[in-house]
Predict the 3D structure of the following.
Amino acid sequence: MVNMRCFVATALALTGAAYAAPVVSDSDRFTFLNMPTPLGLPCDLAVGPDNMIYTNYLLANKIVQINPTTNAIKEFDIPFTLPLLSNLSLPVYGGVAFAPCVVRPGQDGNMYAATGLRNQLAKLDLATGVVSVFTPPNALQPVGNLQLLNDMWGGPEDMFLSQSTADVISAFNYKTHQWRTYQVPTPGSNPFGMRYASDGALWFTETLGQKIGRLNTTTGVIQEFPVPFPTVATPAVLRVETGGDMLWFTCFVSDSVAGINMYTHNFTNYRNTAFGSAVSVPSVNTLDAQNNIWFSTWTQNLLTYFPPATGKMTHIEIPRTLIYTPISVPFEMNVGVQYYGGEGKNRIYFTQSIFNRVGYYDLDAGQ
Ligand SMILES: *[C@@H]1O[C@H](CO)[C@@H](O)[C@H](O)[C@H]1NC(C)=O
Ligand SMILES: *[C@@H]1O[C@H](CO)[C@@H](O)[C@H](O)[C@H]1NC(C)=O
Ligand SMILES: *[C@@H]1O[C@H](CO)[C@@H](O)[C@H](O)[C@H]1NC(C)=O
């Protein structure tokens, strides 16, 4: 989802700085699951239509299924296809997935993942276990459609994906397998996080355009709402809706989670209150059953949540960490975070990519 090298370098430069304990230390409630593929680097997380947890690897061509009842892990291979040699926007890179960080459920009952620099969409058919790969029609645009920094969302009829470097949002129809392409009006806007909201529109962030977009998927009309920059800067992942009118998104640079009212277009912004969080890089957000918004922080091994009405944050230490803040040691790269309320569970799942593991935190004691 993000340029990893840049953040690793930042982290290495800043390690060893001051320590202050976050609010909650609760290590009994954590469970860690090591991924079977060495150096796979799990990144995003989602709940499937089958109530299983799914993650995808940054560095391996697989979609991973975790059974929340047994903790059993199953992997599905993404076939390596060359769409057409002439259509590749990059030289051949040895068949290795590079930096895809998104897995999402489709409303057709299947799971979808991006393939990173291969610029394709992978569909895991949950009935057959077969993964198919689909190539968007616009892979030849001059700047390429590198999906390194992208996201997806399953709408009622289409899987939507942002092709960030080409300023494009694409829709893949579940039934016909036809693509539609929507050009974002602002050049260099880098469309990224997205959610099909209760108003029937696809809302998305423009990470470099510093705007929130709204796509009418019927007419193709895109409205754009500038964020109050720099209070709100680099809107990133937008996955939470609350109260029927608010959409919430993480902000890398303003170190915050912000909201936009879908009807008044007013913004709310809550700064991360963890100690030394200036470069925490809030990454992904998710809503729990108590209507709390949780978010991951790329560089700090914490899980943080807040009620949308007050923004009052609680920070929970992820155990197996020597130093929590300002940059955690060891640096584990916490990106994925996903609430899970199925099978009688009440959990927050998270990924720690560099340690090749998925963890979960039980919200109820003694689960
Ligand atoms: C690949 O490029 C050819 C033209 O060179 C074009 O006709 C075809 O539609 C492209 N295919 C894809 C999948 O983009
Ligand atoms: C999309 O635009 C059409 C035409 O203006 C309108 O009737 C429809 O309600 C819009 N859809 C959404 C979700 O805003
Ligand atoms: C939204 O913002 C406008 C302009 O700043 C303001 O007049 C209005 O009261 C705000 N509405 C709410 C519900 O906060």
